[in-house]
Design a protein that fits this description.
Helices cover 48% and strands 14% of the residues. The protein has 16 helices and 13 strands. The protein has a seven-stranded mixed sheet with strand order 10-9-8-7-11-12-13. Strands 1, 2, 3, 4, 5 and 6 form a six-stranded mixed sheet that branches. α11 links the parallel β11 and β12. α3 packs parallel to α5. The radius of gyration is 20 Å and the shape is globular. It starts with a helix and ends with a helix.
Length: 409
Amino acid sequence: MIKELLQKYENKSPEIVFHWNDPETEAEGWTVINSLRGGAAGGGTRMRKGLDQNEVLSLAKTMEVKFTVSGPAIGGAKSGINFDPQDPRKTGVLERWYAAVSPLLKSYYGTGGDLNVDEIHEVIPITEQSGVWHPQEGVFEGHFKPTIADKINRIGQLRHGVIKVIENSKYSPSVSEKYTIADMITGYGVATAAQHFYDIHDDSIKGKRVVVQGFGNVGAAAAFYFAQMGAKVVGIIDRDGGLLNELGFSYKEITDLYLAKNGNTLVTDNIIPFEEINKAIWSVNAEVFAPCAASRLVTQDQIDQMISSGLEVITCGANVPFADKEIFFGSIMEHTDQKISLIPDFISNCGMARVFAYFMERKVQMTDEDIFNDTSTIIRKALIEVNKVNPTKTGISETAFEIALRQLI
């Protein structure tokens, strides 16, 4: 049943494909709008060398599934530019790209930052130069259809909210370091999803051993919240190496690691080289695995080793963490879903999409607690919906996809 639904959804052609060739460089870009469900579509802008239209399409379809959980009830979209983000001509490419795509951004498409494109330093200021009030203006216009005054108020709320510096020490590794909602919310959702999952199944995250893959914004924040919840982070694997501690790192140790990271990289004196950690970490005794690195990295063999070492729950920070070819439900994902509790990415990593939806919906409370609680509530609600249809601990992702696709097809 799920296979047919997925096939139907994956094979349906997107409503709009906007293709651009930069007149001044070799850059090429696409905006793929899977559908204008609810009058609008949303999805971030990424840049990487070697990106193609197909990658953008699969991400647009993924966004549409995510919106069934996070809201608003709109279509999925994505923008992608095939260009080296390290190239000094990057800013010019982005300026010309956003100028070309600005009519869409003013009427029915909302965007944000994504891989190698920064929301606060690039997307917002560059779209403004093209006369766009805010990168999400198209979603307001096409979906919410607010009055001008209402639109101004909500855009103000959205602007302020995403870059809001966290003041409540419960949600930040260091209040003096000025971490923002955008820095922390996705990792928070990843940890919270596992916490709610255990709670719904009359168990507790407290004392559970956790392995985190990736120590960028998402992985480091997830580790921070796991430690705060009383879970034990026993292993971290990053691009260049990692750490193991069978007793679990303390909350203070994890906080210090968060504060010491260099951009998206784990920094520590006693790092275990990648080759070595990559051999050891998959057979460490852990109940929870949080893949928060790049997409499509986790292999069948790694999963099997973890399952035989006692793995119970996977909560995804990365979109499609498994090394499958398929857009959604590939063979590794399906195999994992049948064996253990696999919380799908569109539930566990919906934090940022939810923050956007929260600030767009109406006049809302702007405290850290209200913003984080809202994401927590949305994730819990999605997991309860899944549990109503499927009260067991396996087939979680399949059930979640079925609930989502029934809304979309």
